[in-house]
Amino acid sequence: MITSERMAAVDANAAALGVPRKQLMESSGNAVAREVRALADPGASVELLCGRGNNGGDAFVAARFLSGYDVTVRLLGRPESIRTEIARENWAALGAAEIPTESVTDAADLALDDPDVIVDAMLGTGVAGALREPERTAARLANESDAAVVAVDVPSGIDADTGGPTGSSAGSGEPTGSGGSAVRVEADRVVTFHDEKPGLAALDADVTVADIGIPAAAERFTGPGDLLGLGRDPDSHKGENGEVLVIGGGPYTGAPALSARSALRAGADLVRVACPEAVAETVQGYSADLIVRGLSGDRIGPEHVDRALELAAGNDVVVLGPGLGDGDGATEFAREFLSRYAGRAVVDADALRVVPEVDTDAELICTPHQGELVGMGGETADDPEERAALVRSFADEVGHTLLVKGAVDAVSDGDAVRLNRTGNPGMTVGGTGDVLAGAVGALAAVTDAFHAAAAGAYVNGLAGDAAAAELGNGLVATDLIDRLPEATRDE
Ligand SMILES: NC(=O)C1=CN([C@@H]2O[C@H](COP(=O)(O)OP(=O)(O)OC[C@H]3O[C@@H](n4cnc5c(N)ncnc54)[C@H](O)[C@@H]3O)[C@@H](O)[C@H]2O)[C@H](O)CC1
Ligand SMILES: [K+]
């Protein structure tokens, strides 16, 4: 099963792996044509109802694969209004190949000549709201005809994620808000691409999943698609893009500052640091962009839990551990803090060891390297696939998301697993783990824990690769921070 949102991410990842959308559309169109061939012999009449997006583009390709059939390609809209370049290219290819096309803009001009097969390629996953005209009328005509109806990717008017009508948030199959009942194509067959869609199972249609050549690596590994949708809403206000509290420092002062600055560069609006008073000035000295809150004394200990919880309450995410040290008081603090905190937290460094034993309502993203993973009671292996399986089962066991750092990072929430290949040996320098924890913290303020961990690993490695390209093995952790804004851009 794959949601529309994940499908878009995987699509972008495939393009980054050298399999561009045009190639995918070619395979999609081919798969649609195969379905038509299975339904009707050559000579049969096939009406392709095409929208102006890529769903329509799939049908332009299908028409090319249907030589021997009496094909009509009917575009709902003017050719100039075809929205994507690849769909336009495939439309142009029809003309060049002398495959008959028609374009209809007015619903009143729509009529179907009793075809044997109708291909519904009006709307796929790019639909917004209930069907408009002329799609609405075309859907009615398709439903009234005796033809076998083959839907491309998803029947037009159906939300692929819910199975309900498009434009209804309930997705329950109930009519949409504007009074009229929702029109949707009642398909006999659906050719859907790459993987099953959650909304198709309940439909009264035969569903075929067509492999369109998206490599498994596009799902298995992080890629640029994992950043889609993480960009800022242009209308947002200060604080809406994430408020992060870093709790750490004491024996080390650089670590919490690195995490905090990283969170800012990865997109958080406000980042606060709670650290011992004795080092507060030093931490503040690293950057005027940080809001530093002192906790009495020179080490964080259990006496600071109340204050830390108070500070945490105003934030979306806590990053716990950078520079905390492994003293008994710090460990006790981490244990008690987590047992009383119920929000979302990234846990790193010396705070990791308390995770397996602590009883917490918090949602944690733990960022151990192999050694720390073993320290937590987890297992590791040399083979990356085996290691990924172990990370998955350990995440399931502890009930939290794990991001296990290595040459290839492994991320799992106990269910899904994603691997990250960005990064380079130059990043074994001190502080890059603090940068990662901060970046994941910033992302966890705007998306779910698993997505934040995967995207955080990806951007951290990408920033490291950009730094290494310029500085080789001379890179330092702050070089990554400087390159995070570019690495996190989602276009
Ligand atoms: N990897 C993939 O996901 C692949 C997908 N393919 C196909 O592409 C479609 C999705 O294409 P997209 O261009 O994003 O959107 P649509 O074609 O579904 O439609 C967008 C288009 O339709 C118009 N529109 C939107 N809402 C309405 C409405 N309520 N009523 C009428 N018209 C509407 C508007 O103009 C939009 O721009 C996917 O389903 C697959 O079929 C591939 O080709 C292969 C890879
Ligand atoms: K469709």
Automatic annotation (TrEMBL):
UniProt organism field: Halorubrum kocurii JCM 14978
Top-level taxonomic group: Archaea
YjeF C-terminal domain sequence ranges: 222-491
CDD domains: YXKO-related (cd01171)
Reaction equation(s) it catalyzes: (6S)-NADHX + ADP = AMP + phosphate + NADH + H(+); (6R)-NADPHX = (6S)-NADPHX; (6S)-NADPHX + ADP = AMP + phosphate + NADPH + H(+); (6R)-NADHX = (6S)-NADHX
The entry's keywords: ATP-binding, Isomerase, Kinase, Lyase, Metal-binding, Multifunctional enzyme, NAD, NADP, Nucleotide-binding, Potassium, Transferase
Binding, K(+): 55, 120, 156
Function (record text): Catalyzes the dehydration of the S-form of NAD(P)HX at the expense of ADP, which is converted to AMP. Together with NAD(P)HX epimerase, which catalyzes the epimerization of the S- and R-forms, the enzyme allows the repair of both epimers of NAD(P)HX, a damaged form of NAD(P)H that is a result of enzymatic or heat-dependent hydration.
UniProt GO molecular function: ADP-dependent NAD(P)H-hydrate dehydratase activity; ATP binding; kinase activity; metal ion binding; NAD(P)HX epimerase activity
Listed cofactors: K(+); Mg(2+)
InterPro entries documented for this protein: Carbohydrate_kinase_pred_CS, CARKD, Nnr, Ribokinase-like, YjeF_N_dom, YjeF_N_dom_sf
Region (Disordered): 156-181
Positions contributing to AMP binding: 433
GO BP, one annotated term: nicotinamide nucleotide metabolic process
UniProt domain YjeF N-terminal: residue ranges: 7-220
Protein name as annotated: Bifunctional NAD(P)H-hydrate repair enzyme
Family: Belongs to the NnrD/CARKD family. Belongs to the NnrE/AIBP family.
Subunit composition and interactions: Homotetramer.
PANTHER family: ATP-DEPENDENT (S)-NAD(P)H-HYDRATE DEHYDRATASE, ATP-DEPENDENT (S)-NAD(P)H-HYDRATE DEHYDRATASE FAMILY MEMBER
Binding site for (6S)-NADPHX: 54-58, 124-130, 153, 255, 323, 369, 434
Cofactor binding note from Swiss-Prot or TrEMBL: Binds 1 potassium ion per subunit.
Enzyme Commission number: 4.2.1.136, 5.1.99.6
